[in-house]
Amino acid sequence: MINLENFWEALGAIGTVGFVLTTLYLARRDYKKKLDVDHWLDYELLSGDKIPLWAIDLVNRGMVPIKIYEIGITHASFLRARKKKINFLMPRDFSADSADLPILLPPQEDATYFLLAESYQKIQQSSKKKFRIYAQDSTGKYYFSKPFKLDLEKK
Q1: How far is CA 18 from the centre of its chain?
Q2: Are residues 152 and 52 in contact, defined by beta-carbon separation less than 8 angstroms?
């Protein structure tokens, strides 16, 4: 008769180690920084004229507050060297209704920034590439939006 006691103990030890590793992974996952970067086209009425505004929305989806220092635009590229060529957006570029920079975003909160869209349409026409919006936090991590083309004739 074969003694399987050592075999079952080894399987129990492997299962325990797997359970501990899974628990540690799931516990750490909750405290990762998660920031959604989104955009849309909006219009503001000033003296009867519809002025196209480009709205950039940052939403903190994580459980940790994120301090945003910089927002900018870059051309969509899979090459890391090209991604470093970024255009900064200064606080003077934003309209008066925008949130401040730097800003501390608590969990599940958002900040919205408004820009005049016409100046960026000229950049889009000169370059046939797509844009990506980015936000940089206090640790130097970049959060990117999905690639898009700026088209003011959508609405």
Answers
A1: 33
A2: yes
Q: Which residues have a Cβ under 8 Å from the Cβ of 66 and sit 6 or more positions away?
A: 33, 35, 60, 104, 105, 137, 138
Neighbouring-strand partners of residue 52: 43
Instruction: Encode pLDDT of 53-100 as tens digits.
Output: 888 899 999 888 999 998 888 876 665 555 555 666 777 777 777 888
Residue 9 vs residues 4, 18, 19, 20: alpha-carbon distances, Å: 9, 14, 15, 17
Distance in angstroms (rounded) separating the CA atoms of residues 42 and 56: 10
Six-digit token string for 139: 């640790």
Per residue in 113-135, pLDDT tens?
Answer: 888 776 666 666 656 677 788 88
CA nearest to 105, candidates 34, 41, 56, 32: 34
DSSP assignment of the chain equals ----HHHHHHHHHHHHHHHHHHHHHHHHHTTS--EEEEEEEEEEEETTEEEEEEEEEEEE-SSS-EEEEEEEEEE--S-HHHHT-EEEE-GGGB-TTSPPSSEEE-TT-EEEEEEESHHHHHHHHH--SPEEEEEEETTS-EEE---B---TT--
